[in-house]
Every structure is written in C-alpha cells, then in structure tokens.
Amino acid sequence: MTNPLFYAKIILFGEYGMIEDSQGLVVPYSFYKGTLKFSDSDSEFEKKSNNHLQKYAVFLENLNLPEQFRLDVSRFKEDISNGLFFDSNIPQGYGVGSSGALVAAIFEKYCFTKHNPDTISKENLKNIKAVFGEMESYFHGKSSGMDPLICYMNLPILIENKENLDKVAIPKGEEGKGAIFLIDSGITGETGPMIQIFFEKMKTEGFRKTLKEEFIRYNNACIDSFLKKDMNPFFRNLKKLSHWAYEHFRPMIPESIFNIWKTGLDSNAYYLKLCGSGGGGYILGFTKDYEKAEKMLGDFQKEVIYRF
C-alpha cells in the first residue's frame, strides 16, 4: 500500500485516569489524517515539516529499540534529504494525536520487520505500545505510546489497566437522536503544563482518594455501559464523571467552555468532558438529543463523531 493514511485519535474515556490505572477507551477519528509524502513544491509547510523530520531522525538514530522493532533510520534520512515531509491536517494541541500519527507512519514505513495490525497478538500490542512510547517521548518528554498505537492499529482499543490492552468492537453507530460530538474551544492546549498540574494535584491525599474512589469508578462504568450500548446507566455515570471533572479538573477546562459545561450539568441536555489533556483544543460532548444540544451551544464549532 503506498502512502497509507494514519488517522487521528480520540480518547473517549480515561484521560488522566489511565496514568493511575483506570480503564481507557480510545477510537480512531478519520476526519483528520496524515501521510508521509515527497515534496514537489517549496511551500513553507513542507519545508518546516521536512526540517522537523531531520531533527527527529537524529533522535531515532540514538534509540535502542528491540530487534523486531528496529527502524531503518539511514533510509529514513535519505528520504528526508529527498524532500520527505508529513502531510497532515491533524491540528496540533487539540488532543487528537498529531504526533501519534507521525510516529505510526514512520514505524510502518521504516521498521525492518513488517507487522500486520490485523494479526497482532495481545502480547505484541504491549510491546509495540512500549516502542511507540519511546519514539513519541521526543515530542512530549514522556509518552505512554497509546496515541501512536491507536493511529497505527486504526481500531478502537480498550485499555484494561497499565499492563493490558486489547482490540475492541464499539457498538455500530446509527442515525438516532443522540450523539457524541467535539466542541472547538478556540484555543490550542499544551499537554506538558496540563500534565504538570495533574501531578501537582496528585501530591494531595484528598485528590488521590477522590480520583481513585470516584473518577475511576465513573470512568470505568461509562466504558462498560457504552460497550454494552446500555444508555441509561451510561448517561447516569457520565453526569457524575462530568460533574467530577467540573469540580476537580477546573484548571484543565478552557475558560471559554466553563459556563457551557455547567449549563449542560444543570439542564441535563448534554454533558461535557475533556478530550485529551485539556487546557484548550477539543472538548467532548455527549447528548441524547443532538438537535437540542446544538441549539444551546449555538456559537461553538461542533463536529459529530458518533450517532446513536
């Protein structure tokens, strides 16, 4: 396959909680995508991307990856000198995995050993995730490898805990009144500072306790009922999860979103949660009646990602 496309990803559930061993549910999002290409123009975007790849190649050269995951960095560098760049419409700082798609594309093209996402065993998923974590650490300082894994697999992944993850089927979307949607906060978010805030909060015993006893419980219950398509308990737990985030993730909620988050909780017309680390970018919305929610969220840019 020439120039395979690598899609963005959305963490439906598990942001921050996964750091503390909650479950996570991550799905590919095909509206945004990227692919490695050779430049045939002198556009600023292509030159900048090519330049970034040059620096990244130096980093990859010094990575000591296991034999079956080793990369042909010299071929990668040669391609870069011939104008290779990453052609992507995935917005950076929006929590949808811009660096993850790039890492997945490079791994797919330059790994000496070919791996087939359809036949990767559960055990090997863990190994690839660890490799992706090392490759993506260049961009974030520390990475779980989850973003590139989702982009690479292009399948929904259920994170059972820190050690175990597996491919999972999510219920087939249908044209119902309900929807999961994205809201554009209008500003970009930076992952690093948000994660810093989270770890600062984790130093207090009260926060650690409520994260473990409440956030993780609501989060895991949402995943469980969503995968079973059991919508009543799903929305019950979702409201608790949204309310918990409103109380405890306040610094991560963009100012522009603050009031509409509260309106959703008060009216039960929709519920919001962070998409990724927060601070900006996208916010996730869930509603049983999208038409009503859309009217209430009038001025905000919205994109529906799933109907039910």
From TrEMBL:
<dbReference type="InterPro" id="IPR006205">
    <property type="entry name" value="Mev_gal_kin"/>
</dbReference>
<dbReference type="InterPro" id="IPR006204">
    <property type="entry name" value="GHMP_kinase_N_dom"/>
</dbReference>
<dbReference type="GO" id="GO:0005524">
    <property type="term" value="F:ATP binding"/>
</dbReference>
<dbReference type="GO" id="GO:0019287">
    <property type="term" value="P:isopentenyl diphosphate biosynthetic process, mevalonate pathway"/>
</dbReference>
<keyword id="KW-0444">Lipid biosynthesis</keyword>
<keyword id="KW-0443">Lipid metabolism</keyword>
<keyword id="KW-0963">Cytoplasm</keyword>
<dbReference type="InterPro" id="IPR020568">
    <property type="entry name" value="Ribosomal_Su5_D2-typ_SF"/>
</dbReference>
<dbReference type="InterPro" id="IPR014721">
    <property type="entry name" value="Ribsml_uS5_D2-typ_fold_subgr"/>
</dbReference>
<keyword id="KW-0808">Transferase</keyword>
<feature type="domain" description="GHMP kinase C-terminal">
    <location>
        <begin position="235"/>
        <end position="301"/>
    </location>
</feature>
<keyword id="KW-0418">Kinase</keyword>
<dbReference type="Pfam" id="PF00288">
    <property type="entry name" value="GHMP_kinases_N"/>
</dbReference>
<dbReference type="InterPro" id="IPR001174">
    <property type="entry name" value="HddA/FKP"/>
</dbReference>
<dbReference type="GO" id="GO:0005829">
    <property type="term" value="C:cytosol"/>
</dbReference>
<keyword id="KW-0460">Magnesium</keyword>
<protein>
    <submittedName>
        <fullName>Mevalonate kinase</fullName>
    </submittedName>
</protein>
<keyword id="KW-0067">ATP-binding</keyword>
<dbReference type="Pfam" id="PF08544">
    <property type="entry name" value="GHMP_kinases_C"/>
</dbReference>
<keyword id="KW-0547">Nucleotide-binding</keyword>
<feature type="domain" description="GHMP kinase N-terminal">
    <location>
        <begin position="84"/>
        <end position="153"/>
    </location>
</feature>
<dbReference type="InterPro" id="IPR013750">
    <property type="entry name" value="GHMP_kinase_C_dom"/>
</dbReference>
<dbReference type="GO" id="GO:0004496">
    <property type="term" value="F:mevalonate kinase activity"/>
</dbReference>
<comment type="pathway">
    <text>Isoprenoid biosynthesis; isopentenyl diphosphate biosynthesis via mevalonate pathway; isopentenyl diphosphate from (R)-mevalonate: step 1/3.</text>
</comment>
<dbReference type="InterPro" id="IPR036554">
    <property type="entry name" value="GHMP_kinase_C_sf"/>
</dbReference>
